[in-house]
Each structure stands twice: as C-alpha cells, then as structure tokens.
Write a structure and sequence with these properties.
homodimer; Arc Repressor Mutant, subunit A; 4-stranded antiparallel β-sheet; WH-like_DNA-bd_sf (chains A, B); Jelly Rolls; 41% helix; DNA binding (chains A, B); alpha+beta; DNA-binding; 2 domains; 20% strand
DNA sequence: CGGCTAATTGACATGTATCAATTAGGGTGG
DNA sequence: CCACCCTAATTGATACATGTCAATTAGCCG
C-alpha cells in the first residue's frame, strides 16, 4: 500500500521509486469526503486545483447556452481529473460527484515539484494526457459518425472496460449509476431515445438490466456495433526518462 | 529567429532560454517537404514519431468500419501533432497534408531529453496537451449538443481564431482549403447539408465566399450561434518550473 | 475543348427529437 | 407495513432536422 490511489494506478505501468511515491502522496494529503451530487467546480469559476479521485464516481460536463448539457467524461477511482487547471485559471468544465466520493484536491503549484524533480512522473502525466486525448477523439468519432445505438453501446463498453481495468473481479456486470438522461447527455441523445436504444440492445441480446446493474451478455457484439477500439490495453513507455 | 517554428510558438508564452531553444531545435533538425494530400501516418501503423509542422496545413482523422471519416483536428504552422505516439506504439489516427507542407518529424525518444533536462519545456508540453484536450471537449459538445448550422459556424470560427493567432495580419478573411465534404467530416455532417448550412450562414450575413477564401462578415454573430468559447486567449502559466 | 472534381439544388426518406401520458421503483413518514 | 411522493423509466403519436439519392452546374487544369 502506497497510501496514494494515483501512485497505485501509475505503478501498474512502471514500478515507482520511493521518492516518486512520496511525491505522489503529497498530491493526496488533503482528502475530502463528498456526498452524491456535490459540485466540485463550476465552469468559469476561478480554480487552481486538480483532483485525484480516491473512492466513488464523478463526472465532468459542459452546459451550453440553451441549457443543454454535454457530459465529457466519467471519472473512476484512481483517476486524476480537473487537469485543465494546469493550463487555465478558470475551470473549463464543471465537476460533480456521481456517488459518495473521496476526493484529493491539490493546488497546481504542486505540479512544479513533480516536473522539476521527477521527470519520469512528468512524462507519465504527459502520456496519460495523450491517452485521454485519444479517448476523446474516439468519442468525437462516435458522436460525429455513428448511430444512436452505436453511441450508447460505445458508452457502455467503455464503462465496462475501464471498470474492469480497476477491478479484475468484474466480468460482465457493472453498476449503472447513470440515469438515462445522463446517458443521453454523454452521447448527445435524448433520454427518450436512450430508453429505446437500451431496449433495442436488450432485444438484440447484447445487454440485460438487473436491479441497478447492467449485465453485458455479449461484449464482443456490443463492442462491434459500437465501433469500439480498446486502447487502454497497452501504453508504450519505451521513452521514459530514468526514475529519480 | 530561433530556427525552430515550435520554439517561436512557445516563446509567445514565455521567453525561452538559449538552452531551451537548442533543445527544441533538435526536434526540428530533420525537415521534410511534402506535397498536398501526402499521407504522413496511417492509423494502426507502427509509429514512433511525432511532428512539428513548419509550413502548410495538415489534418488528423479516423476512418470507421463503414468507411466514414471523422476529422479530428486541423494542424497549422507551429503546431506539434501526432503526439499520441508518446503514449502508444501504433498510430491512433491518420495524418495527411492539406497543402504543400514542411514537416519536421522527430522520434519520441527525443522527448526523454526534454523531460529530463528541461522541466519547464516539459510543463509547457503538458499545458499544451491540456489546452488541446479542452479544445476537443468543446468540439464534443458542439457535435453532441448543437445544430448543424452551429457546428459549421464553430468550425469556421475556430479556424479564424487560430489562424489569426498565427498571423496578426488576418482580420476577417481566411483561405478555405477544406472541401464541403471535409467540413462535413469535421462536423459530423453530410457534404450536401454543409452546403445548405454555408448558404444559410451567407444569407444571415455572417460569412461570404470570395474565390477560395472565406470572409467572416460578423465574427461576433458567428461565434454566438456557434456557442464558441475562445480559450486560446490566455493560458495560466503561474506554476511553471524555473527554466534551465 | 474536354474531363475531372467540387458545389449546388430538389425531392424524398429516415433517424432522432418533442410532447404527453402512464407506469415502475425507491425512499420516507406515519 | 402501508400510503405517499418523487424521480426515473417507459411508451405512443407526431414533428423536424438531417441524410440520401439523383441530377445539374460551376470551376479548374491539362
């Protein structure tokens, strides 16, 4: 146990030195407990913080002028998020918890130490940023070029893949903490239409509802109609600097 | 003159040290000239390179199973692109020139030196990655939650803002190197519908065509209907490490 | 003067949104 | 344990935005 959720995540890619672990722990020395639905940051508010999520789920979203919402990304335990604070003084997105959550905020000034003293960690931060960028481009293609059914399938597949990455015990069943309205806001659809697509996916034998859970009955099939590419599998870390 | 297009870009945010300039120049010591329409990388090909664009335009895109294309981003002079190579061994997107172009490829191993010896440059790389991530989230909201007309307006506004950032002489007229098919592939629309939306924008007095150029007649109005947020204006660099 | 690609236009098809009920489910207080 | 309430899910009818198909025109290059 490193005492840092984020360190554990990174340690899955490369074994960390003690010094690196300590540097990451400093990012998490200020944990805060939040109830479900708590607002962490609102778009355009001044914000110099970034966050590591230790327990629970969160999400980031934008609200447009007409009041509609675009959910940008779901955040799971071990994720670092709110990272646009590194570039901007005002929040570029709103952040809210989707469940009871433990959150570790840290000031972006803390990044200076990481970049100054731990080049390998800095490189990992950059690599993660690139991986998230790719995840966003995949979603862009999903929204721009695939059908409603495919978009919903892509969201569900991505949730399964990411949650399983965090917990190897997960095989085909995940908690579905999203309302259909939220699924719609993530996929650019209406709640009503999401409902129809979920039913269609169920009728196709691809998924099944069970209490608040979702059972993926045909992962391959779901991924296929979603046009889903699993890119989490392997990062290429060949260029990393030496650890310090 | 630094001899590095990318260094000039970064120097607009912070004055660079000689040592930093030299490090950036090394990324560009292998320029290559390409004709219009040249493929730089194809999705899924092995690729350990990243690129700095010195002259001309390029773009990145994905092709889906059904053959449809999603254009992810346009790249202009001074842009670094193909950066997902930092995280993956295979290209996550295809790259192609949109005009005669001068390109400077560098192996991702070169990043190691930057992160090891130039923490401030590394931090700038991270900041730029975050800014591009935000740009993608804005586009996600555009595709997910706005009308066809708004999406086209957003693309045109973004092009104007970015090109003007590169060249202060640009006031309201930009070359439109995109076919309507390409505009459609960028905005998730059909070429036919793009044509109608362009006409609508023209009828609204927002834009005008002139040879191969586009004249933005009402930038405010175009940005308003596009739901456009200009985030290029100011980065917050307060946390940057000391230069080396 | 072809010959090619891109732009334009019209008629029509379809996917998704909208509107309006109704039903189901999950807490809470009595 | 039941009655109630509130939110989410579900369903049907209809409207509308965008896609599709097909044809024509414009523009450019050799």
């Amino acid at each position: 146990m490193t005492g840092s959720c984020f360190a554990e995540r990174l340690a899955r890619y490369v074994p960390l030195t003690d010094s690196e672990k300590r540097a990451l722990e400093r990012l998490e020395n200020n944990p805060r407990d939040l109830p479900r639905g708590a607002t962490i940051t609102r778009e355009n508010d001044n914000c110099d913080e970034m966050y590591v999520l230790r327990h629970g789920w969160a999400m980031s979203y934008l609200i447009l002028d007409d009041g509609s919402r675009q959910i940008l990304r779901l955040h799971f335990p071990g994720d670092m998020f709110g990272t646009s604070s590194a570039a901007f003084g005002e929040a570029t997105e709103s952040l809210v918890t989707m469940s009871h959550a433990t959150l570790c905020p840290f000031d972006k000034q803390a990044l200076r130490v990481v970049f100054d003293e731990h080049p390998r960690l800095a490189a990992l931060f950059f690599i993660i940023a690139q991986a998230e960028r790719v995840s966003l481009t995949d979603r862009l293609a999903s929204l721009g070029r695939t059908s409603a059914k495919a978009r919903v399938a892509a969201l569900l597949t991505d949730m399964l893949v990411r949650l399983r990455f965090l917990n190897k015990d997960i095989s085909d069943t995940i908690p579905l903490k999203l309302t259909q309205e939220e699924i719609g806001d993530a996929t650019g659809l209406t709640a009503v239409h999401v409902n129809r697509m979920m039913r269609a996916l169920a009728e196709d034998g691809l998924v099944m509802r069970n209490n608040g859970n979702l059972v993926i009955r045909d992962e391959q099939g779901l991924a296929r109609i979603a046009n889903y590419v699993n890119r989490y599998a392997e990062l290429d870390l060949g260029w990393l600097p030496a650890p310090r």
